[in-house]
Input
Amino acid sequence: MRQPLEKTHIFIVMFCISLIMSIQSPIFAPYAAKLGASSVLIGIMMSLSSFMNLTGNLIAGPLVDRFGKKVFITLPIFLSGALFIAHGLVSDSASLLVVRSLNGFSLAFLIPAALALLSGYAQNSQQQGKNMAINGILGTIASIIAPLVGGLVGSAIGYENTYYIIGTALLLVGVYTTYFLRENESIVVVNHHAKPLSLYRILQIVPLRMVFLTAFALMYIHGVIIYEVPYLAVEQGLSTAITGILFSLFGMGTFFSLLLFFLNRFDPMKRLIFGLFGMCVSLFTLVSDLLFLPVPIFLLGFFFGIMMPAMATAITDAVSNEGHGRAFGVMSAVYSIGMIMSSFVTGVVRDVVSPYFVAFLVGMVVLTIIGYSRIQLKATSASGASA
Output
């Protein structure tokens, strides 16, 4: 009975973190503007935070594998709580830029450590997929609820007080984590004689390279949706409130696919290929205007939900437990690269070509590379078996 209870604690912690972190998403931009930041500076703040997150992801992996997961979950939560309180204390946009960048760096250690810890509570691929799907469901629920809560709280008590609440809530989660979170030593067996997985060796593993490529395409497409959907609503003469509904439809599509637990029985790489192909088809319908706008948005969310747990399962299938921290760190870094690239490219090309078409091309190119890599991998395995 102990293992399910301990796994429940990590689910609670990750849900609380997703909820609390998402609450600040609708208030950051207006708060930064209130402090005198221009739209360009706000964009720089977001990009720099993503870059710091990326840098931290690459540092986090080896440290998580060496020193354990719990410490790199607990300490970043406490540090982030203090930095969110500092958000409410700053008096100018320059200080806000520094605080947000530091927060982006500290949170970079949290997600790889939490995913690596959660991965230790599965003894096979199907259990792994179910755990990651449950985590995805909780994260999706948080992402649907939190922006609404954040907007209401921000307008009711002010941005500064909202940040005080966010910071205090994270500190309380940190206390909960300190007392209740445990590393599952019974499943994680570290071979001290094995050569540790370096970043170079991680990237040399062909199945992982395919996963990382897919992760880049997934987050590139996701970044385009986040950037472009509000513009699309305006261009079609829709009210800005419709944007919120469209994002809710995306979340509902994700939530629906995550409930389909039977999908976890299928090979994670096949799920990734199927999901990415589905996202590409959905993007093509957006470009060609073949379907009523909410339909492809819902479908994009649906296929996104298929891919996210499959991504984590594919990583845990490809490397041993002692390499999970490094692998998840690289995956988180690839996520950040995809988001940064999509925002930059979309801003540059949207007046020339549809960003959805560019995202479609990115997805199809990645699908082609993955298909070719899988054919090569099977040919190599067949030749090795015959020899």
Observations:
- The chain has two domains: 1-183, 198-387.
